[in-house]
Fold this sequence. Notes:
Layout: E1 20-22, E2 27-28, H1 31-40, H2 51-55, H3 66-76, E3 85-94, E4 104-116, E5 123-134, E6 139-150
Antiparallel strand pairs: 1-4, 2-4, 3-6, 4-5, 5-6
Amino acid sequence: MAVQEIWQGPFFEDFKAGDIYRSSVGRTVTEADNTWFTLLTNNGNQMYFNADYARRTRFERPLVNSALTLAIVTGLTGADVVRNGVGLGWKEVRFPNQMYVGDTLYAETEVLLARESPKDPRRGLVKVRTRGISQDGAVVMDSERNLLIWKRGQAPTANFFPTPREEEK
């Protein structure tokens, strides 16, 4: 019986300027998601949880909390972009269009730059532009982000699965 290796990347060597990574799944935002996130973060803006209040605005219904949009888009890039690294920070996060409860988010990440880390030869620096895109194609989040990505064979997850002990008979 052969052990089947699951996809472990991408690693630093896989990133090339101009490449585009699209999230392998989408995520529909529910009313519970929006309300709980807003309350959890102590955001008192009624625009996110009070339908009567929102009805009186130009939006006519509650908006999805923009910090939740950022969090979900970041999560959607996890497996496809930053599985083997860490984010070093965002630059100019923008929300050019509104998100509403019931909208589905997808993430698209373009590699802008990939270079060796001057401080750590085991990792590389990757600069990306990530966009959150709703089901109708509207860009609802746009940002640049710097990542520090492990090189192949250097990640702490390399060979992390334990070898099972033989059962005593």
